[in-house]
Amino acid sequence: MSTSNFSNSGAVDNSRRDFLKSAAAAAGAFIIGTYVSFPDVAGAQGGFPQGPYDPNLFLRIGADNSVTVLSKHFEMGQGVTTGLATMVAEELGADWSGVRFEFAAADARIYNNLLFGPLMGTGGSSSMAESWEQMRKVGAAARMMFIAAAAAKWNVPGSEITVEKSVVTHTRSGRKANLGELAVDAMHMPVPKDVALKPAKDWNLIGTKLPRLDTPGKTTGKAIFALDMTRPGMLTAVIKRPDRFGAKVASFDSTETKKIDGVVDVVQVPAGVAVLAKDTWSAIRGREALKVTWDDSGAEKRSTAEMLESYRQMMKQPGISAEGRGDAAAGLARAAKTVEAEYTFPFLAHAPMEPMNGVIELRSDGAEIWSGSQLQSLDQMVAAQILGMKPEQIKINTLLGGGSFGRRASTTADWTAEMAQVVKAIGGRAPVHVVWTREDDIRGGFYRPMVMHRVKAGIDASGQISGWQHTVVSKSIFKGTGLEAMAVKGGVDNSTIEGIADTPYSLANLAVDVHDAETPITVLWFRSVGNTHTAYVMETMMDELAHLAGKDPVALRLALLTKQPRYAEVVRLAAEKSGWGQSTGSGRGRGFAFHHSFNTSVAMVADVSVNQAKLKVERIVAAVDCGVAIDPDVVTAQIEGAIGFALSIALRNQLTFKDGRVEQSNFDDYEPTRMREMPKVEVHIVKSTERPTGIGEPGVPPLAPAIANAIAAATGKRLRALPFDLSAFA
Amino acid sequence: MITLKVNGESHELDVSPEMPLLWALRDRLHLTGTKFGCGRAMCGACTVHIDGEAARSCSIMVGEAAGKTITTIEAISGKVAEAVTSAWQRLDVVQCGYCQSGQIMSAIVLLNGNKTPTDEDIDLSMEGNICRCGTYVRIRHAIHEAAKSLA
Question: Do both A243 and A179 map to the same domain?
């Protein structure tokens, strides 16, 4: 699938804007049809579709003075709806208590992600960065239109009019009207071509803690997730998928299934066999009674140990070389001391709390989907292909996502494809809700790949790092997907080595090579992608080298970041706030890690206690530079949450295979972090007015290495695999 | 027919007595604030109150719940419930929010029985509620805040 398919090119309906304007005016509402052009941002990316396609619907102001921001981004808990609305409200001069959000319709012509478009989608911690100009310009343009409307109505100069807290005021006369009262007039004003944005010193909302817009619904049970959707006549489908990746249905017997009350139909689909029923429980029971014979001829049949051994064998041959620096072999040849180590990382399931699901309804002129859609354009395209339609015929109603961590942005839109396949298999005679159980989720693939690293690094007589050779084996996330061109350069999938080859540390001699493992097990990005494992290797090895050289680990990092003052500041801030260098007491250890990902720097200092084989992470002090913190409380929450999310990855989460079958199935043997394990967390944000960078993902990478380095400080032992094997400490 | 007393109303349901209460609430009564997370009482997303106690509705059959007083997130009321919800809102505890109905239901039961919970009490009472977004720091803080506001 070529990415060009994402742009829904075609004739622009010139009447649409007028229609929407008049429809809105009739309803007494202002809908901003500001077409805001971003040649600077778009030009740099080269993919922004050209031409006016008004209306560019980002903002609606009601007669009741409510300000509704249409979110082009998917909310999976990262606070994106609050962030986007903050930017609009800041420039508009809106009263936050009247600000609301709705999800925008799926339409890449309007809601293109400016950093990885042309497509509508959320990911790569890009939302604030990509919309930083766009959303503020939407608000600023609207403010100008309200000022123009008031100036015309009151017959006064616009320069004497202000907009604050959703009230438009003529400062000399004191005449006032709220936005709602002027909404219809403002709709008739021309959309300004050039808009000036507020300087940072004039911000009232950006940089402050504002109440999250999604909190009320999520604390009262009223928030609607895809799993909560129902349609008249809807059937619930659960799918029996093979227990080995790559297996196919040979035959099935649904006799017993059809005897179960509530079961309506059983159909074969590419993913397996779908059982459709009047309610979820009947569908689950029907599936339990289903007998499927699988064709395992093309299936993965190996166990984890065999897969790891095959990785080890691959490492004996030279891999595909990624861009390196200097001469690593020569640097190692003159090293006074070297360390060589192998590191392993297991397959991981994202396990969002809301299992994968979505509702689809087929109509004569198209299809409508209700789901936690993260890459709407891809979901449209995949469903359209299956249903023989055009992408624009697939209407997607984006709903709140009960977590994602990457899973809802599947490169193949796998669960959306299932929805389309099932509804097609029953001839569209009823709306279908495809629901995954937790077992389906844990065993259903699209995992963070299993990865092996091998590193040889050395220090010279003066204690400088003289050479670093790094080999990685992993199944490529991007190869063979429609997004391959985006991430694969020179045969190397950048997501396998991000954080190594582009390390900000000034390592003079660095060589990186990659082997692509082959398996039918499906893999996918997982919150912070390659950084989930590369940061662990880089930062624990960095710690080991510091000890080998007799240097302080923080001082060593600072010495390697002299050309990166913003990064160094984050290292210093975390060290200072954590009391780095002070004693932690016996049985305790303190460890440091720093990682730069998604253009954001995060440093963490972990305090741990190790008693026999029991590890307790006592405290994490984090420092972060993500540019301007649009809402510092959301930034803090993302770091806190990333720590909670990443802790169980360090402690215990792993998917293992026996004869090709996943051994885990639910939260008993794939257990996320629980309350009692959560450390105390301090988050320190570097004050900045630089453009915002990512925050959803960058908190994940430094956690595990900071803990591992703390364990090494406490015990002298180096842990070179995740999850930690603490049996050696018993 | 099975009679369920949910949120102060009686409902006659034509379902198997073996249907988990969770699916009766969600699919039949359309009370979707109670969530499906694991189906095996391991994550707490489906927590409701049965006769005032926290219960995992995914693992209680409708037949067992018949005749008992069932309360879901949609109908919580009283000082403790208000204090908990208000603390959750003030501190912006939620991220994805999917587990939070269950967290709130468990926190209310904790504070009903213990006006001044320690960190250890919170660890114990909230052990069964998973938050994959990792909002535990704020859940703990919100429970302490709610306790303070009730004192």
Answer: no
